[in-house]
TrEMBL record:
Short name of any one Pfam family annotated for the protein: AAA_31
Gene3D superfamilies the record matches: P-loop containing nucleotide triphosphate hydrolases (3.40.50.300)
Taxonomic source organism: Citreimonas salinaria
Protein name listed in UniProt: Chromosome partitioning protein
Origin: domain of life: Bacteria
Lineage: Bacteria, Pseudomonadati, Pseudomonadota, Alphaproteobacteria, Rhodobacterales
Length: 403
């Protein structure tokens, strides 16, 4: 009969799995040691026009030929020109300065506008929160927004996707920003914990398993009368003006950390998997979320969100049951549902296996139909979120549409 299991056995399995994962990632990333050592893929003129700038392809080609001083890109085999994302952003700024893009559609904040703080929130696990955060962050960043991803999940999945591993690399995390003063140590300023990523325009406040300590510390502080609702907002305030959008990735459980994010956020996205059990869980979650928000409103009556939207994830429109469920949700929730769903796709699954959000994957790795289908889904969701950001800013001009 096998012996009894204790903590040493669990630790041994953890170490064994961690070593195996490191070896697997080294094989996947070879000849580089880490994902962030690889250069980000380059983008075609078509992608620049459709995704990044929102301009007709032929119009953009004409501007690239006639406007002086623009990056020239790099000619690839097959007479195809590509551009680094940094070059695309330089071109975008030049087009705005030359009046070639409509005034009022600039992704950066104008004077008097506030940073959009978006909470991706659902207590149900497996609804693609981290996938949604990473992919939408990259689309918004590609379109010129300065994005800060704030990983509030102790599992730190979205931090792993951006190859920022606070626990393994011994660098500060969001916990070090949120922690309370103690006899031995205290919190660090947010700017010291923010890490630049390999993706232009995206920084991250990485998650950490130490966030579990924040729950214990906050319970003690709250019992002593120390308020905690405003903690995340207060810690981010000094760096907020450096970004156009802050996106909070949250854990699949209620916590003090989640409550501080609810307080700090100005908009909320609730992802929902296409299954009846998930819909049943959503009803319970919304009741709990309402109670959480009401407790905040009791302290700060003026607390309001600019927008609240639901998005269906892992959706297969070819499945009759899921199609029926989608119709039910759209009838019940109305305009609160995003028009675009996050489709279930081999492109997303394969990209997840290699720890790459969609924009990091070369489209040639999939059939054109497969890639275009999921790209339309991911970009469509991001554009709807962008529209909410612009509406909250009070912009009269519409969002630059994908051509």
């Amino acid at each position: 009969m096998a012996g009894k299991i204790n903590s040493d056995d669990l630790e041994r399995y953890s170490i064994r799995l961690g070593d195996a994962l490191d070896e697997q990632m080294r094989r996947v990333m070879s000849p580089d040691d880490r994902k962030s050592d690889k250069p980000l893929r380059r983008f075609s003129i078509r992608e620049m026009a459709d995704l990044c700038i929102g301009m007709k392809y032929n119009t953009l080609r004409s501007h690239l030929k006639t406007l002086k001083g623009l990056p020239s890109g790099r000619m690839e085999p097959g007479n195809k020109k590509t551009y680094a994302l940094e070059e695309i952003h330089e071109i975008q700024r030049a087009l705005f300065q030359a009046g070639k893009l409509p005034d009022g559609t600039q992704p950066w904040r104008l004077p008097g506008e506030e940073t959009a703080k978006i909470l991706v929130y659902n207590l149900k696990g497996g609804v693609a929160k981290s996938t949604l955060v990473a992919n939408c962050a990259e689309v918004l960043a590609a379109r010129g927004y300065r994005v800060l991803v704030c990983d509030l999940d102790p599992q730190a999945s979205v931090s792993d996707l951006f190859d920022v591993r606070a626990d393994l690399d011994n660098v500060p995390s969001i916990y070090d920003v949120l922690r309370y003063e103690s006899a031995d140590d205290g919190p660090v300023p947010a700017h010291q914990a923010i890490a630049a990523t390999y993706f232009p325009n995206i920084d991250i406040l990485p998650g950490s398993i130490a966030l579990t300590e924040f729950e214990y510390e906050t319970a003690q502080a709250a019992a002593s009368g120390v308020p905690f609702y405003q903690r995340l907002q207060e810690k981010l305030a000094p760096i907020e003006d450096s970004y156009d959008v802050i996106i909070f990735d949250t854990p699949p459980h209620m916590s003090f950390c989640v409550i501080t994010a609810v307080y700090a956020a100005s908009g909320m996205i609730i992802p929902l998997s296409a299954g009846m059990l998930d819909v049943v869980s959503l009803e319970k979650f919304l009741e709990l979320a309402s109670s959480t928000l009401r407790s905040i409103e009791n302290v700060v009556p003026e607390k309001k969100f600019d927008f609240l939207r639901f998005v269906l994830t892992r959706y297969q429109p070819s499945d009759p049951a899921q199609l029926q469920l989608s119709s039910f949700l759209r009838h019940t929730l109305g305009e609160a549902m995003l028009r675009t769903d996050l489709l279930s796709s081999t492109a997303i699954a394969d990209a997840g296996n290699t720890m790459n959000p969609l924009l990091e994957v070369d489209p040639s790795e999939f059939t054109r139909k497969t890639y275009d289908r999921i790209a339309e889904s991911v970009i469509g969701i991001s554009l709807e979120i962008e529209q909410e950001i612009m509406a909250a800013r009070g912009r009269k001009s519409s969002v630059r549409e994908v051509a």
